[in-house]
Amino acid sequence: MGAILLSSFSHEFSLPLSNPVIVFLVLLTIVLLVPIFLNRIRVPSIIGLIFAGIIIGPFGLNLISNDASMQMFSTIGLMYIMFTAGLELDFNDFRIHQNKSLIFGALTFVFPLLIGYPVCRFVLGYESLASFLTASMFSTHTLLSYPIVSRMGVSKNQAVAITVGGTIFTDVIVLIILTIVTTGGQRGLPFSFWLRLIVSLIVFSVIVFFFIPKLARWFFQKIGDDKYSHYIFVLFILFLCGFFAEMGGLEPIIGAFAAGLALNQLIPHSSALMNRIDFFGNALFIPIFLISVGMIVDLSVVMDGWNTMKVALTLTLVALVGKYVAAFFSQKIFRYSASQRNLIFGLSSSHAAATLAIIITGFQAGILDNYILNGTIILILLTCVVSSVVTQKAARKIVLEQKDGQLTKSFMGKFAQEKILVSIANPPNIGHLIDFAFFIKDKKSENPISLLGVVSNNIEAEKNIINFRRELQESVNSAIAAELKVDIITTIDHNIPDGIVRTARETMADIVFMGWPGKMGLFERWIGDKVETTIKKLDKNLFICHLEKPLITHNRIVVISPPLAEREYGFEVWVNKIATLSQELSSPVLHLGHPDTHKIISNQKNIKNLFTFQTFTDWTEPLECKSFIKPDDLLIVVSAHPGYISYLSILDDLPTRLENNFPNYNRVVIYPQQYTPEHLLDDEHPIFTPV
């Protein structure tokens, strides 16, 4: 009996491991422990995962073989990396700085290629095809250090914006080069190859960028809030596009990257779906892919004399020099400071995702050898370290240069941070309202979004509070699962509007959301009763929302504002919030309003390129603007409180007109804040006078 158990035990643990349970346990142990350990010594986890793959791989301890199951994980992880790269690109930043981004993209593509090709061809002695493919790898960059600039508060710096925008240019061009080299490079490049490539690209682009977004928009709208189906659908589109790319003779990673671009505008960066995509990718698919990359590194080749180290150090030096030259010329052209130059160099010098995609694909195609493969792994390790150090120092220096020594809100804690209150009248129908609040919320604010329920002060008040919290708990749990901060506030009041106004003051809310009833027949009674009273009493920015369709289904945001809207205190708030919504949805904004309002908005450097303008001043009949509004627009109307500078009498019944004229539209009416609570401190009342 003991011999049988011993034989079974030895069989289970014979190398390489064959039991899928034990294999997966080893992989999960690495994914769990390596990042925890490396975070303590401030080393990027990507380095540790690759090293772990080297150790457990067939050329190390041979714990796990590089069999079909690992290759499947490797393919999934690689496609997932390219998919998220396309999904996370900020098209709004690219549009705002598109000219500078294209110039930088061209510089950071051309210089590394021009420096890298002769080095690989004449110094390292590789053939033309291998030299060209390796040199194109130098042109790519992965924004591995972007979390550093985000954490230090310089992500809005123009140097960061053009570096992010240049990623689009370099990734697309290099991936096309990869297709040309791997598909036609080994057989030559006859006319038939170019014809097939062009036709394939055209057909593929039409399917992916025309039909896929329409299919996705229809699916998200019809399925609603089924969080599981949404994620499975995204994976389905990812691998469908990869399959279409292979059918057209392209690399599947191009299909994955294109799928990310196609869904970019339908998956907001602050959405729960985006959180799930990041979660599963960063927790499982991408780490196992990085381990599989390490498993193909042949330690015997790395240790085989000087040749491997020579290739690795040469590749690393060329990659860093090429990126620094591109950053240097960008600094001179755009007249940036030395700190901005170093920030560009730091962000663009790390090589990871696209670099791995190119080298592994070239290695599998037989174009590149083990020396290039292993040298590239060392290059990734070294450039990731250099990128992190340079970016950290440059970002810190920029922060110190911009600091003026005065007190700012960041010194005042979360009480000075944005607070959003969402008043809930019908808990089962709050999904899109909460999405809207999350999309426009200041990402730097630590305050949760508060869901408010006001129940009547009667004998069943306590029972109604319990029911309200129970009905909202599923929404709260979903938000928590997506790492979104939400809390529930319930209060009792004889009058619903008074309860909303009182709670908004008690919580020091900056913005209050209210929803309209779904049934059309209740609209007039609602507006004439609770909402109208709330509008009159509330001294906060008020967003009254009718949202029956997912916000991601809109292709454009149309904003209508009255004359002198720019004179209201809350003007800056609603303009910035609409700009934030535009960036989240990747949707342009059409502003219908007075030329003076247009001028103020167009002077805002960070948001002006999100807006297009159409003069509209006929407020005797404001709904004449209907000709500018399309069926897939999100309609936002800016109103005003009676007695304030932009108030017009026609605004009194404007919500009712909107309901009657645009019954099937998502629509929002904004009432800007009347005054700032800080004005109280300027009052001469004795209570505000320092002793």
How would you describe the overall organization of this protein?
The protein has 691 residues and is α/β, with parallel strands linked by helices. It has 3 domains: 9-400, Na+/H+ antiporter like fold; 411-436 and 446-533, HUPs (Rossmann fold, 3-Layer(aba) Sandwich), CATH 3.40.50; 549-676, Rossmann fold (3-Layer(aba) Sandwich), CATH 3.40.50. Helices cover 59% and strands 8% of the residues. It is built from 25 helices and 10 strands. It has helices at 2-12, 20-40, 45-56, 68-88, 91-96, 98-123, 128-139, 146-151, 158-184, 191-223, 227-247, 252-263, 272-295, 299-302, 305-334, 338-348, 353-364, 370-402, 431-440, 461-481, 496-506, 523-537, 571-585, 595-602, 654-661; strands at 420-423, 449-456, 486-493, 511-515, 541-546, 556-560, 589-593, 611-615, 633-638, 667-671. α20 (461-481) links the parallel β2 (449-456) and β3 (486-493). α9 (158-184) packs parallel to α17 (353-364). The longest helix is centred in the first third of the chain and has 33 residues, at 191-223.
Structural class: alpha/beta
Taken together, the total number of domains comes to 3
Could you tell me the strand content as a percent range?
5-15%
- How far apart, in Å, are the first and last alpha carbons? 90 Å
Adjacency order of strands in the biggest sheet: 3-2-1-4-5-10-9-6-7-8
CATH architecture of the largest domain: Up-down Bundle
Radius of gyration: 29 Å
- Rough shape? globular
CATH class category label of the largest domain: Mainly Alpha
The description of the largest β-sheet is: 10 strands, mixed
Number of helical stretches of at least 4 residues:
25
Instruction: Briefly note the CATH topology name of the largest domain.
Output: Na+/H+ antiporter like fold
